[in-house]
Amino acid sequence: MGKLLNFIYIIFLQFSRQPIFWLLLVGFLAYEYLALSDISSPGDVLTSTSFLVQAGILAFILFGIILVQLDHRHHLEDLYSTIERGMLFNLIGKLLFGLLLSLFFTIIFYVFYLIYYLVQGFAFNHIFISAIFYMLLYFCITFFISYFIGILIAIWIKGRLAFPLALIAWGLIGPINTSFLGIHLTTLARWLNLGEPNPSGVYNGLYGLSIDWFYWLKHFVWIVTLIVFLLIALYKTYSIIKRKTFSKLIAFSFILLLVICYGLSLDRQLYITAQDEEISRELVEFLYYQKEQPEAKSLDIHALSYEINLEINRLLKTTVNMELINNQGELNELTLSLYHDFKVKELLVNGKIVQIKRDKDLVTIPLTEKWGQDESIKLTITYEGTSSSLFYANNRAIYLPYYFNWLPSVDASPSFEVDSYGTLVRNNHQLKYPTEFVLNYEGREPLYTNIPEVKPGQFKGTSSTGLSLLSGELQERSVEDVQLVYPSDIKGNHYNEMKDSTIMLLNYVSNNLGIENLTYPKQVWKAPTLSTSDNSMEEMVWYTPETLIFSYSNSSWYIDSPAYFTYWLFPAISWKYEDIEVEDRDVFRAFDLMYCYLYNQIHNIKDEGNFLDWYKNVSSQGQKKEVLYALSDWLMENDAIEEKQLFVKDWYNLMKNNNSSWENVYKLLEKYKGV
């Protein structure tokens, strides 16, 4: 050990005399300071440091080359060869020095990072722990691998030719390697990339940093592969190890590679963004659901209870016991909806195994005995798989809300649909009756749900809308008796402004439209999903009397425009909450725009009417076009506020009674406006 430490000390003395080391250290710290001072979020700053990592990769490749070439220049290899195992200790010492050097840079970066954001007023929470692992992975290990590559290049290639090869290696393994390889080699670039997987993406406040075990395994593949090349150098170039030892070490290395590659090949759910993937997570679902989906009429049945034994790790695995009651009439088969990537392993009806028919999201269950009206049956369904790319369920993040059919749903509609404008829309699978839930859970913690935890890992309660689960890179605090859950990279400011605006709208809509149980929930979740469909204001917020879920991504609870907040919240507490369905979703949009614009006018909330151009810009014809143009013109008039209020109130009743055809809306317009 003493001999090895002496070699490391000698290497340090050699290295510290190189001006490039001190120049790069100062440049590294200067770039870090500029990044920290420019980006307010401790999550965004890490995903935005790809240029720093790219520069560090080049620096460490050069460090490795320079150290080996110093030995060549001063003929130190001849000296080391006179020492017992001197050449071996020299190479091991160089590698350990590179590891310590990369760790030194990582620690410096982390200390600066931590101090800066704590001084800025952020509480020390889980994101700062995740940041340690992130920096170890994408700074320390990546820099060490780069240094290792530099050493191997210098061992195999003598002289100045090593430096052009260093530039090639630098272009291939950095986080911005697509700039060198081009878009046609995106898959190769993704596998070679040793930096942030989504360098041009944005930080996902729910999922957190890209520190999945998958990325660690990919780095380990690189390390083992480089060790193989080092062993070849020790055997061929330096003749340090014997043939038998060489063969054993090579065999062991290849076995280790096979084990790691097997781990890489396993199904898993990773966070991806549109910028850097061949296909974005939104497009995955769009391409699936734009194809024809099976049609099945939802039956008049409802769930009395769910008992769920749930394990979420790399995959979601669960056994669900359901009790259903039949309000339909006599039935010979039962149809449920379950997200298609959840593969049913076994299904029992009243304790007897049955063979189901699976068609995408639709599960058809034959009944061996006729199911009479007002009778109940018990189903036991075992299934597993990866969740939707828009609803996470793995050991990094969980977002399984009540409106997603992650549990078998009595609503037979698919998870998503593509509307007439080519927009991916989430279908609402919320329950309509009070249902008892028992959840036995094993997975990432803490887990937030809308039912109480009765003992560690077990939750029990009743909900009229469904069961929601949330976990991820989140923090929690309580304000009065309300539980707030929100991303760790924000301070959670402006909560009171959001709460006041929400309560005001809840009270107004409850009185104006006669919607019951519109109360401010005891749970408020901010779960940003960063999907294309979230650009639609109908997808921004979801509401139940138990939980208010904000899907948009920003740095506070409230948004800069109070008028926009109305447009985002209103759909959640009206037709989405009451689970109203219409044939043409443009009815919802037309109604929402008018109702929210009137609300903002009545409450003196500044509204420029930026959304109102939609009425005349949307594709329409016939009576639909007449209605939309008439609504646009009427809203531009600042009078007749009372008539407009009565009109939208009656319009909502038409939607509730499934009479909201454009013809009926036209007749309603005739009554109040005269078109």
Q: What does this molecule look like?
A:
The chain is an alpha+beta fold and 675 residues long. It contains 20 helices and 21 strands. The strands form 5 sheets. The chain has an 8-stranded mixed β-sheet with strand order 5-4-8-2-1-12-15-14, with no helix packed on it. It has a 5-stranded mixed β-sheet with strand order 17-18-19-21-20. The chain is globular and about 95 Å long. It folds into 4 domains: 1-211, no CATH class; 292-470, Immunoglobulin-like, CATH 2.60.40.1730; 473-577, no CATH class; 580-674, no CATH class.
The overall average pLDDT, rounded, is 87
How far apart the termini lie comes to 93 Å
In terms of DSSP E residues, the strand content is 15-25%
* Low-pLDDT residue spans: none
Share of residues in helices: 40-55%
Number of β-strand runs: 21
Broad shape: globular
Count of DSSP helices? 20
What's the alpha carbon Rg, rounded to whole Å?
Answer: 30 Å
**Sheet of most strands:** 8 strands, mixed
Q: What's a concise summary of this model?
A:
With 675 residues, the protein is α+β, with helices and mostly antiparallel strands. It contains 20 helices and 21 strands.
Features:
Immunoglobulin-like, single chain, 675 residues, alpha+beta, eight-stranded mixed sheet, 4 domains
Helix-strand blueprint:
Blueprint: H1 2-16, H2 19-38, H3 44-47, H4 50-73, H5 76-81, H6 86-119, H7 126-156, H8 162-173, H9 178-181, H10 186-192, H11 213-237, H12 243-265, H13 281-289, E1 301-312, E2 316-326, E3 331-337, E4 342-349, E5 352-353, E6 357-359, E7 362-371, E8 376-385, E9 398-400, E10 416-418, E11 424-426, E12 435-442, E13 448-449, E14 453-455, E15 458-463, E16 469-471, E17 474-479, E18 482-487, H14 495-513, E19 523-526, E20 541-543, E21 547-550, H15 562-573, H16 586-602, H17 614-617, H18 622-636, H19 641-656, H20 662-672
Parallel strand pairs: 1-12, 18-19, 19-21
Antiparallel strand pairs: 1-2, 2-8, 3-7, 4-5, 4-8, 6-7, 9-16, 10-11, 12-15, 13-16, 14-15, 17-18, 20-21
